[in-house]
Amino acid sequence: MIIDDQTYDIIIIGTGAGGGTLAYKLASTGKKILILERGNFMPLEDQNRSDVDVFKREWYHPSEKWYDNAGEPFSPQTNYAVGGNTKIYGAALLRMREKDFEAVQHQDGISPEWPLKYQDFEPYYTEAEQLYKVHGKSGQDPSDPLRSIDYPYPAVNHEPPIQEIVDAIATLGLHPATLPLSLTRQTDDPTGDAEVFGISLVLGFPNVTLKTDAKVVCLHTNASGNQVKSVETEIKGQKYLFSSDVVVLACGAINSASLLLRSANEKHPNGLANSSDQVGRNLMQPLMTAIVQLSTTPNSGKFPRTVYLNDFYWGEGDFPYPMGHIQNTGGLLQELIFAESPPILSVLAKVVPDIALEQLAKRSIGWWVQTETLPNHHNRVRLKGEKLYIDYTPNNIEAHDRLVHRWIGTLKQVEKTLEHSLFNRSSIYPRSEIPVQVTANHCGTCCFGEDPTTSVLDLNCRTHDVENLYVVDGSFFPSSASVNPTLTIIANALRVGKHLRNW
Ligand SMILES: Cc1cc2nc3c(=O)[nH]c(=O)nc-3n(C[C@H](O)[C@H](O)[C@H](O)COP(=O)(O)OP(=O)(O)OC[C@H]3O[C@@H](n4cnc5c(N)ncnc54)[C@H](O)[C@@H]3O)c2cc1C
User: Fold this and answer.
1) Domain residues for 106?
2) Which of 144, 317, 408, 416 is the most exposed place for a label (fewest CB within 10 A)?
3) How many domains, the chain?
């Protein structure tokens, strides 16, 4: 074991949406910051732009195995790299709606109230949209929350085939809106992520050190158990111990919880900061179904997602419960998650020859249908020896099914109104639910709250049990909402960063 003889003010573990953004917020304080990231920089050619290769193979699955409810091993789709999962994400950055922060009755139970409200997050949403150069247009979606300032950049135009559908959807009295996207405005690498807008902005600071290929394996506390004393890390086969006044976990909702559970010791026998027995529990993965609309007219196969609908977000006439959110996918040749979908789409992707697959993808328009899942004590990250288990049973399924059928019905109506019959009217809409292996949009596991018996983190995302330990990633969510989580993770990192700047 090598003991690093330097001491740091802050150690940040992980460089995704939470960690990368927090590093940016803290770098200018002059505090001595060490960033530990288990992955490395991703060369541009390995990123989510590799056409059929990405679409067809499990490109972003690390070699490690996790285990499902039934004890079956699987390789998770999670990206260990500088920028974390934002290096492969779709960059759709949406604000949660005001009501998402309140207790809401769903068909399958209650989505709990957040201890802070939309108004508390609004200034940080604004800051997050500026930092991540979000391109959007307000005023199109009736569920839009109030904003103090408009989007910093204009919305991206729809591709012609999407524009035609958008116009047809609007004639049905629905409200298709332009999807807010993080974009660099550079042609070679247009997607904005936590490397571009977080880590790369801090590397020039003399007070900031980034160590890559640095996997944190355990947090050690002092004798009384109220402070993290050192961070045990493996770097190229060698173990190191690093120390700092403050330690921030930002490994993502599953890995942060797993690291706390792995760091159990005499003072914390159920896992570090786990006197509440809440660490790892209430794991949430919004229900997602991919729907493919087959077209007779080719498209480029490579274009950004640009449209979303929230007309059914809070329900509809005879179903007064939240149903969820709908987005078009990007061009199917670059939509990573399609390659990960179970039966229909993934089998298709794996058996169809490359050229045929490319042609098929270029004659398709994809849609994501997303529904909030509710926190459940039994849905959890759990350790048995060295093995990491994901116990997960989806809920709120009826609301999701309803939205899926509603959307397919809408697409059928739309096709009838298209003069030139862009689509083949085959009425076949291959669709597929997203399995637990795809860790997109995971959250929960270290919920924040005022009561240390029912939450892991306080309102500043500091653990109730350990004075100098924070968790700043998707773990802190008390409920998942139906919109994608990352803008809220970024906004929260800026909020906690403001607190830590004065620490
Ligand atoms: C294909 C795909 C598409 C998506 N599209 C969208 C979208 O359009 N909009 C949206 O809002 N969200 C999207 N998401 C979700 C989004 O990527 C996540 O919500 C977000 O990245 C989570 O941020 P995080 O900080 O919690 O964790 P992550 O971004 O996962 O970052 C965790 C970091 O910790 C590092 N790490 C983990 N363990 C250790 C360890 N032991 N030691 C050191 N480092 C460690 C990881 O390497 C990583 O860098 C998508 C996700 C995927 C996979």
Assistant:
1) 2-501
2) 317
3) 1
